[in-house]
Amino acid sequence: MEKKNIRNREAKEMWRNKNVWILLTGEFIAGLGLWLGIIGNLEFMQEHIPSDFLKSLLLAAGLLAGIAVGPLAGRLTDQYSKKTVMLISGFVRIISVVFMLIAIQTGSVWWMLVFLVLLQISAAFYFPALQAAIPLVVSEKDLLQLNGVHMNVSTLSRIIGTAAAGILLVAIPLNAVYLLSMAAYIVLFGLTWFLQFDENKKSPVIKDGQQKQGFKDVFPIIVKLPIVMMTLILTLIPLIFLGGFNLVVINISELQDSSAIKGWIYTAEGLAFMSGAFLIKRISYKFSPYKILFASSLLIGFSQLMLYFANQPVLTIIAFLLFGFSVGCFFPTAATIFQTRVPKDFHGRFFSFRNMMDRVFFQVVLLMTGFLLDAVGLQNMSVMFGALSIVMTAIFFMRSRNLRASAETEQSPRS
Question: Pfam families, from UniProt (predicted)?
Fold first, then answer.
């Protein structure tokens, strides 16, 4: 009973923090603007670019621009104020929409390319700065809960944003949709001004005068922290599924000869994700972060194996419910490990590196998924990916005792 009262007091303390509300409100509004823009992009490309290959090249160009500036983004995030980096990247995001409005007015795909490049460059700076700022906003004991709620807000904005975009595209012109997207980014920019947190806290791992400034200096830190290295590699397991998610959904729809199943899949996965992220705080009281990561990775592998029965609607929905709940538990736990284990002096470079790694792996998985769908079909590909996920989880589980021992050794000097 006493522990429960302590948890309730801790939760109330976090929710009284105005920075928490600013971050969550900003995430929701920015998410709405992002998904309005994404659906608008698809509408514009469908009208002006007949080739699917050229569409993929256009989208890839923006992603490559984000990857190219990743090292610079990480270095500047560690050297300068995270709030300043977020404000500048937010301003660039607002300006980028102007080029998309020009693209709509002129019908030029080249102006859209400028828009995508600026948007991805902005994201390459903004998201590492945001991830590095979260540990400065709340205490370490509240990180897991805030990460879960933050991801739930992001998922909710995706669900509402995509639904709203579909309705708005019928009711208003395309340029009006982008104006609404720009308005959301302006609101986010305004909210960011009100963030207040102490950015002068030094990590006890790094002594004064020894702070490193090079992007490559983050790699020795990762190697010295086995739990971080393990978690970083384990994050590739959900990406194996997420990278080709849309292609898989399209194939399931064709396999079942049902358009409605797409909506059911997205809804089931989104709701299950929100449930996992909502419950992860309570789950963490009973299980260690290591057990949560391994169990989630294992369930992700099983959900992929279940898609061997993708011709059965009920089993398909169950597979996506299992996947959604698993990643809803996995990502907040992984984010909390990164935020607490990696020294704060390296947060900008680390999260920028992770952002780059995710983007590159996403592209590889997307191409691999497209190839395997043509070569072996959805059901056989699902078995291959599921088996790969389970084998990767099993390998790291067998090494987990040594990793936990190393993690305890890392913690002992801090206590």
Answer: MFS_1
